[in-house]
Amino acid sequence: MCDTSQSSTAEAALSAPRLAPGSAVDPIALEPVDEVSITVLMDNTFDGLLPSDAHTTRAGFGPPVPADHFAGGTTAVGLLAEHGFSALVTVRRGQQRTTLVFDAGLSPTGILTNADQLGLRFDDVQGVILSHGHFDHAGGLGGLARRFGRRMPMTIHPFAWTPRRLNIPQRPFEMPTLSQKALIAEGFDVIERTRPSLLVDGSVLITGEVDRTTDFEHGMPAAHEAHLEGRWQHDPTVIDDQALVVHLRGQGLVVLTGCGHSGVINIVRHAQRLTGVPTLHALLGGFHLSGPAFDPVIPPTVAALTSMNPHRIVPGHCTGWRAQHALAAALPDAWVASSSGTTHHLVGA
């Protein structure tokens, strides 16, 4: 979730960079893959006029639907966009393809509506990854479970079950809290992990808790709270935030974030340290740089990403328009506009 409240100096100190608890697994042998395909099932925007290119397939307007006020009795519709994120990730290594769902959007049916319009099925999905427990990434899990029609493993951080709220004056908002019991009943085999996990025969890495090492990514401002030890308290770290990482053969790392609450530079550097792969090929997902509280984070983030020289950068969801403009200006050859229904094709060398 996004929030625009400012932190006090004392609260900022609570979110100072720190290392994730426990021993790090370093390095991790992440098997290279030959191809990665990432379809954005849901994002905050949909643009039916964006052109496709050699590495990007855009979803245009869909088949006709009834609309009596048009002369032909029908009209075309686009895909849904909402304040949420979800992606379908397929990796290919040799002849073997594996598909995972990363996050599930905001609404119970949004990603299913978009998948149906795109002609996508979930028959070959082998697992679900939840980037963190915020409801705008978990809203469609119930609908997914029913569509799967079979039990499905889901990797999640145990802090994702924690109640949270935005304690904003005049409009406080207690976020919907995930129920582990309900998800198990829906058909998910819940796998709780705080440390890195290797999936798909060692070719997909889920980061687990991300080391906080930069001096400018301080996490969420004071209004973001979690209910811990019987009381509401500032939750700057969103410690359950984790990302998906793939090593694209001959190209480098492909990193997919949900909101990037850990800080996207922290996330990329954490992935580089874990895998021993120094090159960032592509970074996609939410960068959480929206709102006044995050304006100071934009310049050092842009500078750090520019120094990494990625081939493709696709900021979406909670990145915010100021950060989008800054990233597009600094990385014009790498920046790609995000939109619901877009498929990004990344091929190894």
Automatic annotation (TrEMBL):
It holds the Pfam family Lactamase_B. InterPro entries: DHPS-like_MBL-fold (IPR041712), Metallo-B-lactamas (IPR001279), Metallo-beta-lactamase_dom (IPR052926), RibonucZ/Hydroxyglut_hydro (IPR036866). Residues 95-149 form the Metallo-beta-lactamase domain. It comes from the Bacteria. This is MBL fold metallo-hydrolase. It comes from Kutzneria chonburiensis. The lineage of its organism: Bacteria, Bacillati, Actinomycetota, Actinomycetes, Pseudonocardiales.
